[in-house]
Structure formats: structure tokens, C-alpha cells
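Support case: iron/sulfur cluster complex. Customer-provided input:
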Amino acid sequence: MATRVAVMYLGRIVEIASADSIFTTPRHPYTAALLSAIPAMPSSSRKPRRIPLAGDPPSPMRIPPGCRFQTRCWLRETLDSPEICSAIDPTLSGAGDHQSACHFQHHVDARRGA
Ligand code: SF4
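Agent response - structure generated as follows:
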């Protein structure tokens, strides 16, 4: 039971929001991949697309420059690997109390069902 949820990747919060907001409209591709792994009941109308994550997390001793999720990011691939992902480490930002550390957070929800 929680009213706010924080998602961490490689030792840092990459998304934080109310439980309702994070479960209905995740704004970080890692959160979207985690949610896609929740099994749906056979009778459920919810049939989310499974988002597999390739590879393993990098060593905490060798975190890549730029976004720490870039080596496994499915969203980055759909955007043709924009340079900013490997150049600038995204910080938490967003509207209201829903914050995400992704330069393309407003593309996550539309593309996760693609
Ligand atoms: S900033 Fe780029 S690499 Fe990082 S999560 Fe967003 S799309 Fe993926």
C-alpha cells in the first residue's frame, strides 16, 4: 500500500509520482518495462505489450556518461538513438508531482503500446 511510488535504476530515482499516476501513465521507459511484466488475468481486458529489456545493467563502477539507462533503453531505439541521451544526464523533471529523469518522458506512454 502506497500513495507515492519511486522507481530506482542503478542507485538513483528515475521516476517518482503518485501511485495512480505512475501505474496509468509511466513517464520513464524503465518504469514502463517493469509495468509491462505484470501478468494480466486471462479474463482481463488489459493486454499490455510486453517490453523486454536487453542485456544487464552496467556495473555501478562503470555507469555510462549521459543517461544511465541508455544501454537498455527501448525508447531511445524508437527515437533513432538521439545524441542527447549519451551526452547529458537527465535529472528529474516534469509537471506537478510526477517527475521523470528522461529527456523524452512525454513519448513514453504513446510508444509503449506501439
Ligand atoms: S533519456 Fe534517452 S536513454 Fe534515457 S531513458 Fe530517456 S530516452 Fe532512454
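The CA atoms of residues 8 and 14 lie 5 Å apart.

Case will auto-close in a few days if no follow-up is received.
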